[in-house]
Fold this protein.
Amino acid sequence: MTDPAHAHIYRAFARYGSGVCFVATYDPDSGEDRFLIAASVLTASVNPFHLAVSIGKDRDALAHILSGKPWSVHVLASGHEGLVTTLTGETTKSERLDAVLAAGASRSADGTLHLEDTLASFSCQTAGTIDVADQTLVVGRVDSATTGRDRLPLMRWNRRFGTIHHRRSGYSIADVFLRRFALAGLVGLVAGVAIAQSLRS
């Protein structure tokens, strides 16, 4: 629960847009799959390749990841909104697993669940961790990666999940901005011509 005294900071954080990822790990000893949705994923290094993900200390996948089990990160795309809603909602563990399997998940070479229709997938091993308040920042060495077909990325912004596509018009946010900018320029030009004519008369 957010401290009411810090509600304005929470609202500011909500305006920080980010991609959305599915993080999965697997324990071969117990045969259990653990997974979560993460919006705080970043490139930590490119020589060699490492990425970092912020995971809440109350997440059941964290212990598996910290124990040295392989884990994977999958960059979600448009069409995954339903999956994310189920995995972040008040659902049971069984319901969440059924949703992942219904989304086409299969067992990958590292043992973790792999979503076929993601933008990219990374197989990782934990290289280091940093405790940050109620989160653990996990740095993973990327052992392998695959890319999927081009699609619009799924985004998290202002406590909502969606894409950068403008649903009503079919234009992207950038298209809408450029059209409004062009319209404003045209209005300014017309106004300038009108002012010039009035000065001449």
Observations:
- Confidence is low (pLDDT under 50) at residues 166-201.
- Helices lie at 7-14, 60-66, 81-88, 93-102, 173-200.
- The first helix runs from residue 7 to 14.
- The first strand starts at residue 18 and ends at 19.
